[in-house]
Design brief:
The protein has 22 helices and 2 strands. By secondary structure, the chain is mostly helical. The chain has 2 domains: 336 residues, Up-down Bundle (Cytochrome Bc1 Complex, Chain C); 88 residues, Cytochrome Bc1 Complex, Chain D, domain 2 (Orthogonal Bundle). Helix 3 packs across helix 10, helix 6 runs antiparallel to helix 9 and helix 14 packs across helix 15. It is elongated and about 90 Å long. It binds heme C. The site of heme C has 21 residues, from helix 18, helix 20 and helix 21. Heme C (HEC) binds next to helix 18, helix 20 and helix 21.
């Protein structure tokens, strides 16, 4: 039988490669991959897709290293991230590559979409390719959202509180959606483990399958080539993917990792103080790519939120996803598609505009400005402190030392359960928000303490300390615990 050249050109190969090839068909797979014809030849404009795959792999690898230390629970998440940042060798560097990598991913995504859009490369039987790309767009935003909470610092906690509250605004299913995300009414360990599972298992698995689909559909349709080209039956002489485009893509990947490494080395990604749910003054700000949406939602208060949160974004997403179904002309040159390009530019300008308004809003109001500066300073201060390990697994040291007295141990639990430690520090040792409570029993006896809890002083209220109302037994335990400090 005559073996045709294209079906199995490698039957002659010998040695280790031949052995391997006979069992895997590696040679034809490589040929299939590397010989992909690119009409009009290699170009820098085509690097963004493979750049995205590269950065995704970098996220997977750095993510695996982070997961070696990370514990997704409200008691330990922040300590473990602090440990990675301050104690693990190269920990801060790897974490920074991962954190900056998420921004790089969003930037590359926007560049990839823009290139596809301007080149009209979604045309010519590429509807499913475009749709799988839209799916990937959403999935990347999901990764950014779920990853943001994991360090469990102030920024993470309050931005995610806002994000999940927004989900709560969706009509009919909002309440359900919000408690599904949070694992209950409030944010805590259940929220963290849900976000963690989504971030490291569920969403990446879906991304892998979507990437496979996207690449397959891309190969099936073929590279669209330059803007003058017919997207279905290109006529310009083509060049194989290897070597020129591979080299350009590799150079781009190198550039990405170089930029990330320089940023991570010279300006390591920060970690703020641990989340303090009792802090009523914290001004949440999401990562930069969510700022335009964040600003947008401010214009839709109360009963209008339905329009801002659901209707308008759904319309935009719907038209965006159906683009190749709506725009069926084969014309690809941007200047011949003024309406489509105009819409695209408009959306981009709107996003930039919203970002600008958000920035101006923050800096025009002196109260906001001061609070944001204080928050940035708290983060800087926290970064300068050396790593502090947890005392005996999250529970307080006093509790274990005094575990002979069950009332004191119970009081220690009340103390942490009501976030007293968030302001007064672990074991009431004091913190930036409130003074130490050690030796408090020398100044205030049990009755005075209870009275104080029922009627907090002005200073306490100003400092954000809530009125403490507890069942009798818990109150007694709390007072006993305070007496043990
Ligand atoms: C939001 C931060 C915050 C939280 C949470 C908080 N406190 Fe306070 N607490 C303060 C501030 C601020 C003061 C006032 C300090 C001052 O008078 O200078 C204060 C004062 C006190 C005092 C009086 C201290 C003194 O020296 O007179 C006690 C006792 C106390 N808190 C106990 C608690 C307990 C118990 C809890 C948990 C149920 C708690 N606090 C939660 C911020 C907080």
């Amino acid at each position: 039988m005559n073996v045709t050249e294209s079906s199995s050109p490698s039957t002659k190969s010998k040695g280790l490669f031949g052995w391997f090839d006979k069992r895997t068909g590696l040679d034809s797979v490589l040929r299939e991959t590397l010989d992909e014809p690119i009409p009009g030849g290699a170009r820098f404009a085509y690097v963004f897709g493979s750049g995205l795959i590269f950065i995704f792999l970098s996220q997977v690898i750095t993510g695996v290293f982070l997961a070696l230390y990370y514990v997704p629970s409200a008691d330990h998440a922040h300590t473990t991230v602090a440990y990675i940042t301050k104690a693990v060798s190269s920990g801060s560097f790897i974490r920074s590559i991962h954190a900056y990598g998420s921004s790089a991913m969003v930037i590359l995504l926007l560049l990839h979409v823009t290139q596809t859009f301007l080149y009209g490369s979604y045309k010519g039987r590429r509807e499913l390719l475009w749709l799988s790309g839209c799916g990937l767009f959403g999935l990347v935003l999901c990764m950014a959202f779920t990853g943001y909470l994991l360090p469990w610092d102030q920024k993470a906690y309050f931005a995610t509180a806002v994000g999940t509250n927004i989900a709560g605004e969706v009509p009919f299913i909002g309440g359900w959606l919000k408690s599904l995300m949070r694992g209950g009414a409030d944010m805590g360990t259940l929220t963290l483990s849900r976000f963690f599972v989504a971030h490291v298992l569920v969403v990446p698995a879906i991304i892998f399958s979507f990437v496979a689909m996207h690449v397959y559909l891309f190969r099936k349709a073929g590279a669209a080539g330059p803007i003058s080209e017919n997207p279905v039956a290109p006529t310009s002489p083509s060049e194989p993917f290897y070597p020129k485009q591979v080299i350009v893509d590799a150079a781009f990947a190198l550039l990405i990792i170089l930029v990330l490494a320089l940023m991570s080395h010279y300006s390591p990604f920060e970690l703020g103080p641990e989340a303090n749910p009792a802090d009523a003054h914290y001004l949440p700000r999401p990562e930069w790519y969510y700022i335009p949406i964040f600003q947008w939602l401010k214009y839709w208060p109360g009963s209008l939120s339905f329009l801002g949160v659901v209707v308008v974004p759904s319309i935009v997403a719907f038209f965006f996803a159906s683009l190749p179904f709506l725009d069926k002309r084969m014309e690809r040159r941007p200047w011949k598609r003024p309406f489509a390009v105009g819409c695209y530019v408009f959306i981009f300008l709107a996003l930039f505009g919203l970002g600008g308004l958000s920035y101006r809003g923050d800096h025009a109001d002196p109260g906001y400005d001061a609070q944001l500066t204080a928050q940035a300073k708290a983060t800087d201060d926290f970064m300068k402190q050396p790593f502090q390990p947890e005392v005996s697994g999250g529970a307080t040291a006093a509790a274990s030392a005094a575990s002979s007295d069950p009332q004191v141990a119970q009081g220690a639990k009340v103390f942490t359960a009501h976030f007293c430690n968030a302001c007064h520090g672990t074991n009431g040792a004091g913190g930036p928000m409130a003074p130490a409570l050690t030796g408090i029993h020398k100044r205030l006896d049990a009755d005075h303490l209870v009275a104080l809890f029922n009627a907090p002083t002005e200073k306490m209220t100003k400092g954000g300390m809530p009125k403490v109302t507890l069942p009798d037994a818990d109150m007694k335990a709390l007072v006993a615990y305070l007496g043990s400090l």
